[in-house]
Design brief:
By secondary structure, the chain is α/β, with parallel strands linked by helices. The protein has four domains: 98 residues, Alpha-helical ferredoxin (Fumarate Reductase Iron-sulfur Protein, Chain B, domain 2, Orthogonal Bundle); 41 residues, no CATH class; 134 residues; 120 residues, Rossmann fold. Helix content is 50%, strand content 8%. The chain contains 23 helices and nine strands. The strands form two sheets. Strands 1-3-2-4-5 form a five-stranded mixed sheet. Strand 8, helix 22 and strand 9 form a beta-alpha-beta unit. Helix 3 crosses helix 6. 48% of the residues are buried.
Length: 427
């Protein structure tokens, strides 16, 4: 794609990176075949190629974002299926993230949108606040029919029937390895996951220590920054990321870590991109160190000696977009489940998003609901006894649309190697 940025514009690192990405695009349109929003809406501007044209025009002109551009960029899931499909290696993730920052800085949204985005940014990344919000949503759900805004109704729907008690395993501490220590790892405890499902971190700790890992829960860690990053709130996202880097690097310098384990793939994609986020700052070296240490839990488990098992259970594996497209991890989770003895089945169109996408199901509930229905239908068509996924957002989204139990991959692996049966399966 031909671009016309001025030399002065290209002195800006963000615009220079955007220019590199734009020039890699050859207009082939392969991305439209795998874009969920294009399939649902049928509008070229709701495809990666269409959004690229809008972003190019906005950035080249240096003008504030307009309503049309904001509408179509906001509809992007950031599922990154287009990056897996693209034969030219267009790094759409960095381009759309830069566009969102530009939008946030130059476009004044309607007051309802501003208020909603402010609330999400100030509540979801903080487990205590989020837990309180879930309780309020649970109390407000019976009055949902009186709520006029579809986005507020979606927030009420998201609240689980049972809000789990706080897990003390998420407090700063060290869990010793069972037997000789094979690895020393830090576990990212996350933010929303600590309020929505405490069983995931508990199962991860049990499984890793059982397989010979010393697991460190560091003081000072929190949200990875993804929730605010994808809303264009760059300062908030960088502050969250910097706090995590400080927390992990203190431990790494005291006693080197073999990995930073992340069991929420949406967080993993962001942490692995810290090197890019901080590339022009004095924290570039620290960010690169953390990004290199960051691993999805399935990557770490693949390096350990997971015992073989014989579990008589049919598992539909849902590949989270952030795992298969963002981190290019497609084989490891399924291989681990098969080694543990589970029968693994995959749905049709497994590359397509379930519609969760961080806060997308709250800000674009209509489109999200259509994607959820399609994903649930394809999963249920495999006749599973349980659905497994590696991302809390996907688990919540799919769980709201099916009666089939939904669990995290590590919960099944923990159970298969001596841990408790997941509660949603009757444990």
């Amino acid at each position: 794609m031909q671009t016309n940025f001025t030399e002065e514009q290209l002195q800006d690192p963000g615009l220079n990176r955007a220019n590199e990405i734009l020039r890699a695009c050859v207009h082939c349109g392969f991305c439209t075949a795998t874009c969920p929003t294009y399939q649902v809406l049928g509008d070229e501007l709701d495809s990666p190629r269409g959004r690229i044209y809008l972003i190019k025009d906005m950035l080249e002109s240096g003008r504030p974002a307009d309503e049309k551009t904001v509408k179509h960029v906001d509809r992007c899931l950031s599922c990154l299926a287009c990056m897996t499909t693209c034969p030219s290696g267009v790094h759409y993730m960095h381009l759309v993230d830069h566009a969102r920052v530009h939008i946030e800085q130059t476009y004044r949204r309607p007051w309802r949108d501003r208020a909603l985005r402010w609330v999400l940014a100030k509540v979801l990344p903080y487990p205590g606040r989020f837990r309180l919000a879930l309780l309020l949503a649970k109390l407000g759900r019976p009055f949902k029919r009186f709520v006029p805004d579809a986005r507020l109704r979606a927030m009420l729907d998201m609240a689980p029937r049972d809000i789990p008690p706080v897990s003390r395993n998420d407090d700063p501490q060290t869990f010793c390895a069972h037997g000789p220590r094979k690895m020393r790892v830090a576990l990212m405890t996350g933010c929303a996951q600590r309020a929505l499902n405490t069983d995931i971190n508990d199962a991860t700790i049990r499984l890793l220590t059982r397989l010979g890992c010393e697991v460190v829960i560091t003081k000072g860690q929190g949200c990875c920054g993804a929730l605010t990053h994808h809303m264009g709130r760059e300062a908030d996202a960088h502050a969250s990321a910097a706090a995590n880097m400080d927390a992990w690097l203190v431990e790494h310098r005291r006693d080197p870590l073999d990995a930073i384990v992340i069991n929420t793939s949406g967080c993993g994609t962001t942490v692995k991109d810290y090197g890019h986020m901080f590339r022009t700052t004095e924290r570039a070296s620290d960010a690169a160190t953390v990004a290199d240490l960051a691993c999805d839990v399935s990557e770490v488990l693949s390096r350990l000696d997971l015992p073989e098992g014989r579990q008589n259970l049919r598992v539909a594996y849902h590949a989270a977009c952030s795992l298969q497209h963002g981190q290019k991890i497609t084989h490891a989770p399924k291989a681990l489940l098969k080694r543990a003895g589970f029968e693994i089945v995959e749905p049709a169109d497994s590359h397509l998003c379930c519609g969760s996408a961080g806060t997308y199901n709250l800000m674009q509930p209509e489109i999200s609901a259509k994607l959820k229905r399609r994903k649930v239908e394809t999963l249920e068509a495999t006749s599973p006894q349980v659905i497994a996924a590696g991302n809390i957002g996907c688990m919540m989204q799919i769980g709201m649309g099916t009666e089939v139990p939904v669990v995290h991959t590590v919960q099944l692996l923990d159970w298969a190697t001596g841990g408790p049966k997941p509660r949603v399966l009757g444990g």
